[in-house]
Amino acid sequence: MSEMSEDVRDWIDRSPYTAALGLKLDALGDAGATARLALPFQDGNTNPGGVLHGGVAASLAATGAQAVARAALGPEAGPFHLAQIQVSYLAAAREEAVVAEARLLRRGKALCFVEVEVATEDGKPIAHATATVRGRFGGAPPELAPAAGDAGESDPGPLAPHVAKTPFMHRIGVDIQHMADSRSRIVLPELEANQDLSGGIHEGALLALLDTTGAMAAWATTGPGAFKASTPSLQAQILAPLPAGELRAYGRLLQRDAETFWTGVEVAGCDGTCVALGTVLYRIVE
After folding, report:
1. Which of 15, 86, 235, 274, CA to CA, is 20 to 30 A from 264?
2. What predicted TM-score, i.e. pTM, was given to this entire model?
3. 3.30.70.260, 1.10.3660.10, 3.40.50.970, 3.10.129.10: which CATH number matches 3-135?
4. 77: DSSP letter
5. Angle at 27 between CA 197 and CA 41, to 5 degrees
6. How far apart are the first and last CA of the chain?
């Protein structure tokens, strides 16, 4: 195995977050043209009913995109971060292993454009993602703007305790602090199992936080009920390599059209600066 392949495999195998997921690098193509990742089924990655959590599918896509970019640009291009990612959820995976196939679309001087397909082992499409990964080539950290945040309300509502107890949410330790009046606020704690190899929060954990915060802003609009719900898609921009420390996400309803909700999410680091932005398309159906 080449030194480049070993570097990418080491990043995946030794990052606490991906190790906790059980994610493994199966194969890495020449010069980072392709990557294949495998994720066995485990209860800790699921929603109720053994369904793969959308944040885990997004984590697969993010890790596959990073694997390709790291191999294509080389370790000297680091530190790396997802400048943007768009994830479309196509179907549910229930109590089954999944794989991710990542493909380099174009390599620039500092950017790699990557497509990722997530599917079950028998080929059923689960999610499709496109991502832009940036290598900073040792550049100084950017100056980040303060997050807008919220007014500090604290009403988690009746749903929050149940959401926090679902297998994947419980494992990453989410703290749903507010979920009312079409707004949400969720804290992702600084647990080792949420970290990247660098010690910062893993981008997959951030995407899971963003997905959940956007969904909770939609539920904060309808309130609890006998509904079926899902995330058709999410989009995120990560503004810099993620820091150590807890992350705090603020969600708010942007628009509702019957059963369809568009929510905006802002994610702040522990110093109050904005580290990521995103939108979640969510559906709640009677």
Report:
1. 15
2. 0.96
3. 3.10.129.10
4. G
5. 70
6. 52
